[in-house]
């Protein structure tokens, strides 16, 4: 190895081999930075190969690939951050060592000055005089300058964002990933329906966010204010900018409570509840237990919404409790669905209709909740009639479970990433943005036609990971998403209709029908939902363990 010392913190060299890792340990090095793009020349070792050898020897590793003629501010920021974060001393290498020395000089010039860094580089055998002008201007004030940079920026630390970060690190540990999310806690939201049915405790559905961020991922505890994909960066709520090589946008969905007049003022009291909020799901169960008679309303807004079966799950679990307590004849249940059908995939409707009849549910299709008056116990609906006109009608209630209208977050819908409907515009198979090749999206904010469920995000995360890394490597994307989503419809305590389907309503069952026939109520499906899925979520999906969802990377994307 031709190792050239710049100072006590850093040395540079030409290309190293995996076999050099243990020698570097013997020489006292603690970290390696590779500045070579993969595939720069025939027979070149990949960064992943060097990364694995480095980790095996006990060295930290960072890959910051650059082309000598186009070193940008992002590359300089990445190098500076690596030098701050990595244990010292560091060995940085490229084909000859020049790029590594140049990156160090450009990252240090704002604080040390051009003359000092030029002299240090020259003493190591690298004449960087041609960069003097740039080195002298490196510290100039620029309010558009990025404050941080990364290989992959993940926006959103919900199920989709965490799972994507974990799946990326499973495939390439050397990635520098920043995850942006202001929340201090992470919620297993599919559990809130079970909280509303008295099956789960609310505290079992949340954990501190710090406990679920994948190890090795830097967490920025703030919100994104703007996407600037033309500049490969985002603007944070505090004005800082983060530059990225690749972006994974998983910001979730906005629950638009304010669209329903009077709802926010009365939610959580006056018999008004929703399982779509952690703090009101327990109130659902309280109302269900205490209701002895009267009218119970359950609502579903226009699509898209996350977990389209959740409004019905609340209805069925409530009806089951009243049925078991002998109150079902004393309680009038109404389901007001803004859509035209009970469930969008017809194969599951017959089983659901059996429970509609069992619980004496009055079905009201084309009926959209527009206002709630909690003090008067009245709800106002807009209903489409046969001639195409819309009429309003008011229904009194003793209890109402509301599913709020849902839209893309404001900073998404107003961004260059959005399609006309406000969702992030991605190809439905690859999950790559249609206009920005270094942007991927998954989860509820992605502009795909699949059901917006945690199960969909679980399937999407490894596909995004495979395809994103392929783009980084300059390869064709190998994985395709089939639209899989799952909706375990809790039709009664102890039984579930396990709806699993993809694009176009195609049935995509995980298990053969002799194990679980998803079109029929199943006790085994209940066990899966109540006992198996929570640990699969916490210890599998969020940890990059892709049980039953590893993508078939041999398939060609059409």
Automatic annotation (TrEMBL):
Report the residue ranges that make up the FAD/NAD(P)-binding domain in this protein: 151-270
What residues form the membrane-spanning segments? Answer: none
**Source organism per UniProt:** Rhizobium freirei PRF 81
Q: What are the recorded GO MF terms, alphabetically?
A: FAD binding; hydrolase activity; quinone binding; sulfide:quinone oxidoreductase activity
Q: What is this protein called?
A: Uncharacterized protein
* Entry-linked NCBIfam families: TIGR01244 family sulfur transferase
InterPro entries tied to this protein: BLH_phosphatase-like, FAD/NAD-bd_sf, FAD/NAD-binding_dom, Prot-tyrosine_phosphatase-like, Sulphide_quinone_reductase
User: PANTHER family under this entry?
Assistant: SULFIDE:QUINONE OXIDOREDUCTASE, SULFIDE:QUINONE OXIDOREDUCTASE, MITOCHONDRIAL
The upper taxonomy is:
Bacteria, Pseudomonadati, Pseudomonadota, Alphaproteobacteria, Hyphomicrobiales
**Would you say which domain of life the source belongs to?**
Bacteria
């Amino acid at each position: 190895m031709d190792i050239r010392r710049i100072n006590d913190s850093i040395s540079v060299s030409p290309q190293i081999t995996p076999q050099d890792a243990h020698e570097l340990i013997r020489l006292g090095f603690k970290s390696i930075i590779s500045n070579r793009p993969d595939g720069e020349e025939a027979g070149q070792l990949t960064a992943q190969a060097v990364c694995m050898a480095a980790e095996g020897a006990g060295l930290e590793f960072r890959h910051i690939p650059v082309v000598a003629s186009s070193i940008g501010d992002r590359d300089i920021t990445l190098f500076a951050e690596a030098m701050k974060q990595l244990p010292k001393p560091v060995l940085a290498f490229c084909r000859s060592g020049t790029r590594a020395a140049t990156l160090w000089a450009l990252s240090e010039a704002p604080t040390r000055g051009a003359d000092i860094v030029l002299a240090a580089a020259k003493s190591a055998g690298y004449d960087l005089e041609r960069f003097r002008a740039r080195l002298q201007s490196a510290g100039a004030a620029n309010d558009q300058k990025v404050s941080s940079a990364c290989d992959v920026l993940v926006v959103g630390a919900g199920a989709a964002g965490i799972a994507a970060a974990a799946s990326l690190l499973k495939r390439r540990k050397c990635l520098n990933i920043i995850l942006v999310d202001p929340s201090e806690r992470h919620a297993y939201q599919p559990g809130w329906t079970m909280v509303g049915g008295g099956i789960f405790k609310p505290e079992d559905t949340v954990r501190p966010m710090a406990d679920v961020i994948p190890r090795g991922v830097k967490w920025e505890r703030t919100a994104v204010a703007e996407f600037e994909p033309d500049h490969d960066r985002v603007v944070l709520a505090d004005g800082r900018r983060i530059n990225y090589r690749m972006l994974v946008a998983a910001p979730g969905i906005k629950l638009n409570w304010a669209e329903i007049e009077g709802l926010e003022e009365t939610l959580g009291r006056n018999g008004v509840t929703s399982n779509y909020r952690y703090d009101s799901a327990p109130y659902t169960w309280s109302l269900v237990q205490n209701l002895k008679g009267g009218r119970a309303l359950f609502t579903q807004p226009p699509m898209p919404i996350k977990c389209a079966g959740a409004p019905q799950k609340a209805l069925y679990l409530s009806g089951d409790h009243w049925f078991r307590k002998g109150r079902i004849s004393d309680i009038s249940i109404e389901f007001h669905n803004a859509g035209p059908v009970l469930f969008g995939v017809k194969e599951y409707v017959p089983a659901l209709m059996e429970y509609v009849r069992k619980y004496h549910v009055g079905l009201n299709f084309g009926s959209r909740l527009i206002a709630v008056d909690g003090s008067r116990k009245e709800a106002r609906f807009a209903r489409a009639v046969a001639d195409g006109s819309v009429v309003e009608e008011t229904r009194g209630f003793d209890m109402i479970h509301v599913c709020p209208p849902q839209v893309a977050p404001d900073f998404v819908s107003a961004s260059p990433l959005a399609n006309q409907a406000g969702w992030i515009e991605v190809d439905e198979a690859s999950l790559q943005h249609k206009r920005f090749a270094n942007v991927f999206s998954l989860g509820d904010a992605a502009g795909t036609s699949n059901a917006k469920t945690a199960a969909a995000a679980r399937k999407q995360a490894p596909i995004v990971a495979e395809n994103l890394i392929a783009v980084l490597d300059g390869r064709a994307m190998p994985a395709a998403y089939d639209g899989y989503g799952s909706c375990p419809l809790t039709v009664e305590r102890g039984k579930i209709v396990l709806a699993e389907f993809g694009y176009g309503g195609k049935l995509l069952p995980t298990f053969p029908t002799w194990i679980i026939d998803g079109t029929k109520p199943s006790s085994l499906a209940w066990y899966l939902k109540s006992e198996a899925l929570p640990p699969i979520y916490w210890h599998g999906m969020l940890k990059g363990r892709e049980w039953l969802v590893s993508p078939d990377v041999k398939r060609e994307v059409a």
